Amino acid sequence: MESVLSQPGMEWMLIMIAVIDVLSIAATALISIMFYNARRRQITFLRSLGHGNADASVHELWTFPPLLWIYILLSAGVTVATTALFVFQPHLL
Amino acid sequence: MAPSVPSVGESLVALIHDHWIKYVVPVTVYVLLGAASVVLFLFAGWTAYHYIGLTDVAFLVALFLLLMAHHWFFAMLLSESNECIVVTDKRVIHMQTRLFFYEDINEIAFDKMKTVEARKKGLLQNVLRYGSLVFEKGFEVRRVPHPNRVAKHIEQAMGRL
């Protein structure tokens, strides 16, 4: 493994990558919170309606649907993978 | 923002989500942008020991492109998953959300509506069985799966059938 700081300018690269990663994590958190709030309002409204088909239909809407978990896990995965790619610089090519 | 408070005794008749066709273009764009960023990452790796400055630029551009595409795609996907048509025994509500940009809720009460029209135009809509619901005063809800069936739900809820 080559030292990531062995070449000139690499400190700035590391800082820029860290900043981009932090912004990415912040974006993930913000989008997740906004979606959760919007979904919660929707479910609250649907539950306020009378029964009939309401119970079965409302179960189709989850506050934390699988899509949200996929998004959070993929965001974490991409962040870790790209950072590792820069830090460890594997000799692939 | 939420729809107006349900009236006494109002009950849910149907909850309908948009047709999957709305995901085709965004998925295609996401795949293309992802492929472009992968190419840039490979380019950065290839130039790592030859042109160090170019490597750094390529890596940063690839990272930025990948993360922008990723967050845009999932923000759009999550927004679209919130879009739905709610049919109660008193009104039709169309909810549409774009995170960060807007949250639209259109309601049409049955006492203000006399007709609903289901339309399917073109080969794609007829083959994939989706279309539009057109209400009075030109209000239109697009990408509705099986619009004739939904129009029938609405007319039943209105007590017309």
Write the layout of secondary structure elements.
The complex is a heterodimer of chains A (93) and B (161).
Chain A: H1 10-48, E1 50-52, H2 54-58, H3 66-88
Helix pairs in contact in A: 1-3
Chain B: E1 11-17, H1 24-46, H2 52-81, E2 84-88, E3 91-98, E4 102-109, E5 116-119, H3 122-128, E6 130-135, E7 140-145, H4 147-158
Antiparallel strand pairs in B: 1-2, 2-3, 3-4, 5-6, 6-7
Helix pairs in contact in B: 1-2
Can you characterise this structure?
Helix content of chain A is 72%, strand content 3%. Chain A is mainly α. In chain A, helix 1 (10-48) packs antiparallel against helix 3 (66-88). The radius of gyration of chain A is 21 Å and the shape is elongated. Chain B is built from four helices and seven strands. By secondary structure, chain B is of the alpha+beta class. Chain B is elongated and about 75 Å long. Helices cover 45% and strands 27% of the residues of chain B. The chains are: A mainly alpha (93), B alpha+beta (161). At the A-B interface, helix 1, strand 1, helix 2 and helix 3 of A face strand 1, helix 1, helix 2 and strand 2 of B.
